[in-house]
Amino acid sequence: VQLQASGGGLVQAGGSVTLSCSASGGTFSGIGLGWFRQAAGKAREFVAGINSSGGSTTLANNVKDRFTISRDNAKNTMSLHMNNLKPDDTAVYYCAASSNVYYSDFKYWGQGTEVTVSS
Fold it and tell me: Is 45 a residue whose pLDDT tops 90?
């Protein structure tokens, strides 16, 4: 599975950004997906996950009131809708694909797209 993340950029605090992840290879509708992020000097952290059908999602506590994750299996894409962005959301965001239908055991990674939130 090859993943390509896009949609990052510079945004002011309080603004919104939608990240997209397109996939090729493999059976897209049969795998769980997720978003991770890594800020400068910090460890990579899990942000959001969605199962293969899109019927189950999870969000990290620090984003659950502001971000939503979705997928379109017909288009082999996944999105992360980010609202009310904060400077602490500044990071490189990576999309990842699981080896199963759940949002766990991520084995495939995209190249990352950078989001910078200015105060």
Answer: yes
